Each structure stands twice: as structure tokens, then as C-alpha cells.
């Protein structure tokens, strides 16, 4: 595969199928053209390859070459230049990969099972455990009602008691679960628990489900081993879910590598970037129905899906979970609560509509801030260190152990924050995407910001498994739009006044720019993509940038299409006034300082 020069990749989403053509241009791989078309997994077509063909036809027209044949995709490339050297695809059509997980202890083995499933690209529909507070008949009814694509069963350390694991297996047997697709097939169940219970689980479930046995997720409480379970999830995804979905058997015959779940491919790319650069990364994909958050800290990858937080179908859920007050706090104008609710409901009813006025755009971006914030809070609860590692391994003792593991997310260590999804990638001004991510994630210290230009991260993720060089070059040159760098001191406001941040920036032309910010200020320093400033940053008393309170930090700040954002609005707590008039004035100041919206229109709204 090292010598391939023309690559076609598609992502079959729930509503849109996207195709990209990558070619080697002057010694490096670059995106040439892209095309898209409606996904056709549902009636009347019920064949995913129809949508793929339509998206590829657009690529053919733009590139001026033939790629399609009667049998599918022309591979390898012919002497006349038609076709491509390789074709890859990802998919979340038909609802993507939907799973349930079951474990013994909710805060230990069940959480490990969730992390394994989420990391493989699944939506976790429910997590069942012995100690989740539900009665056995309630759990059985839940399993029957959800009809997942597969179930991951875990529990117990190797050599420990088998009673509770067998109890969970008997619960699954009593539920007689049926798969969502392929009704004549047995539901796939992966067992990744205590090895001493394998024979008991096989006797209990072997005739009822399609049982697969892999290594224990938690062989000892001090260790989490997610790889074997994730690999088996992917194998079953191809064998059961993809094979039964309309048209996927044809699509699988076309591809040069196994089809991957879209979120799993995005996570793989983010994990690869973090590993190759040796950095800490957070990525977020905010869609119409769900918001996915990915993180890599100290080499540990985590992914979560907030299945009820999105910008169209799930917009009212964001309102419900965040509350009206939390959405209104981001609006630089007064609005009646009932009017705000109605606007959000209208978006849910008409999910494909786009904002028609500046007010509508601000409301949508306010909702996006809350959806991102809530999804990130959810992510932090699962991206944690292992729980119970200092406790005895007798499960009777473990049930009484309530202490939570510490979150692995350390915003002061974060190097790169990547945003994706329509509300971020298609924001009218790039600085709007930057501020939405800053307000939602509140990065601390020095953090680079970027967005996915046209949502090609899934295709690059699956490509990275076969041709890492091509994936890396296109990711850097065509996928990522570098917004710039944010500098944000953390801590309490300086006592007795004084500056919150003093910055001395040596710009590429040799000039030095001095900036002094009071607490509550935000400021933009333009610096283009590819340029960098040598910076000396001094936080105020009580504030820090990772080197201790008041300690000066010398670093290199990368530019971008937005530039360098100096953010002295505070962290822990975030410095947003609570009184309405003060809050509106503060938002007006911040938005004006960053040139977030047209200044005249902004002033008129706040009047």
C-alpha cells in the first residue's frame, strides 16, 4: 500500500454520505475533491451503495475522471487514469453500532465495559450491573425493549468469585435478547470477565446467543485491558451489523480494508495524532442528535457519546438538561424565556434549517456552548483512573466502596483542542468556533485550537490503519484548520487588583507587542497560520499558567486563521457576571474585542 497514489474514501453517515479523493501531488498526499449525497440505507432504496455511488459521481464530475464501474469502484487504477488505487469506508448509517454493556460493579467492571464499547465506536444504550438499583425483572424488560446490536458482559477479576458473573449471565438468558438487525440470527454477546467463570457462562448462554469469549477487561483491579474486547466488537460489527444492513455486503466487497464505525475511526485518528506528536488532545464532534468527546491524556484514550445532546433533533434535550438560564447567559441581548423556548423547539421540528437572523445564530451558538459543556462534563465522569484498586478483591467488600476515581482530564496539560460538526466547522466566522470551544471547555494555560474543515476525520481514521503517511499529510494540510492559540490563566482573581495577565510577544517581523489584561478581559492578537510568536507570559497574583502562582512562562505561541486569544476572564470559577445588565455588557465587550459579530448589529441588539 506504500506506493498507492490515488485513494477514495467515503463515510456513510445517518443522513449524508461523504466521499473524498486523495492523490499524491508533488510528493505528498493532498485532498483533491469531495462530494456528498443523501444516505440510502432506508426506504425507498434500502441499499447503502446507491448513496455511495451518488457521492462518488460528484467526485467524478469534479475530478474529471471515471471511478465507478458496474461492479462498484474501479481498483486498481487503469493505464488511462480511471479508477483509484484503493477504496476505504466508514459508517454510522442505520443508527451506527448500538450496544448494551453489563457488569458486576457499576463503578468498576461496568465502567470498564463502557469504556471498551465507547472506544470501539459504539453508542452505549444502557449499562446494567448487579448494584445499579434495578430489580431483576426491570433489567430483563430493559434488555428486551432496547434490542441492541450486541452486548458486552464483564465482571470479576481472574481467580475471584464467579457467583455474580453467572447471575448476570442468567439474567441475559432469561431476557432472551434479540438483535436489532437480522432477526433470524442470535444476538452476539462478548464475555470479557473472570476467566474462571467462562465455562459457567458458556453453559448458561451458549445455546441462547452467539457467545464470544475474550480476555478479561479487569484481570486484576489494578489493570484495565480493553484491547481484546474492542477488537472483538469490531469483528462482530462487520460480521453481524454490517452484514445485515441493507447493501453493506456489496460495499464490504468493494473496500480494501474493513469498514469501521464512524466514531471509532475518528477516535483512532485522534489517538494516532496524540501518540505521534506526544501531546494531550481533546476532540469533539457535535452533531444533530449526539455529541462525541474524545481525549488522550498520558497515552490513555477515552471516548464518550452524549446521545441526547445535539444541535437539531436533540436541541430541546439540551434546553431540558442545561436549563433556560444557562443558555440565556450566553446571549448579549434580552429575550423572553417563552420566546427562547419556541425558537429552540422550532429548530427541533425543522432540523435541517439554518439561522436566518443574527439573533437566531447567537441562540444556536449559545445552545452549542451548553451542549459541548454538558458533553464534556459527561466525558470527565468516564475518563477516570481505575476505581477500587486499593480495596480487597472480595466483591462483597467492593460493593461498599463508593469512592470515585480521579478524572484523567487535566486542562492545564491540554495541548490541542479539535472541534468538528456543523455548528463549529461551518460557523460564519472562525473566531465564533474558537470562542464556543473556549467557553464550553474552558482550557487553561496555553492550548492550540483547531476545527475539522469538512469533516473528513472518519475517512482519515480508517486510512491511517493502512497508509499512515497519507492520513497524516492530509490531516495536517487539508483537514485541520488551525484557529490559533488561547492563553488562559487559572485561579482566583488577583486580590487588591492589579493585572491578571501581562504578555510580551516577539512577532515574526521582530517587533515586540506588549499586552496587559485586567481580570475579566479578553483580547485578540492577529497572527496568521504558519507564523509563531515567542512569548513571555506573566499571570497576576493568585493566577497561574501551570508553573505556579504568578510564575512567568516562556513559550512559543502558534498562529492561525483567528490568531492568539489572551483570555483573562478567569477559570474556576469562570468570570461571567450573574446580574443581567452586567452580563450583557460583559458579553458585548468580549464579542466586540474578538470581532465575533458585525459591531453595529451587536450594539443594536444590546441596546
Describe the overall structure.
The protein is of the alpha/beta class and 607 residues long. The chain folds into 3 domains: 6-93, Nucleotidyltransferase, domain 5 (2-Layer Sandwich), CATH 3.30.420.40; 96-250, Response regulator (Rossmann fold), CATH 3.40.50; 259-437 and 577-592, no CATH class. It is 35% helix and 24% strand. The strands form 6 sheets. Strands 15-14-13-16-17-18-26-22 form an 8-stranded mixed β-sheet, sandwiched between helices. A 5-stranded mixed β-sheet has the order 3-2-1-6-12, sandwiched between helices. The protein has a 5-stranded parallel β-sheet with strand order 8-7-9-10-11, sandwiched between helices. β1 (6-12) and β2 (16-25) form a beta hairpin. α3 (136-146) crosses α4, α4 runs parallel beside α5 (198-205) and α18 runs antiparallel to α19 (599-606). The termini are far apart. The model is unreliable at 390-404 (pLDDT under 50).
Question: What oligomeric state do the depicted chains represent?
Answer: single chain
Uncertain segments: 390-404
* Strand order, sheet with most strands: 15-14-13-16-17-18-26-22
Strand content: 15-25%
Major sheet? 8 strands, mixed
- Helical amount among residues, as a percent range? 25-40%
Number of domains: 3
Q: Round the mean pLDDT to the nearest integer and report it.
A: 89
What gyration radius follows from the Cα positions, in whole Å?
Answer: 25 Å
Structural class: alpha/beta
**Number of helical runs?**
19
In total, the number of strands is 26
The termini sit apart by 61 Å
Which of globular, elongated, flat, extended, rod-shaped describes the shape?
globular
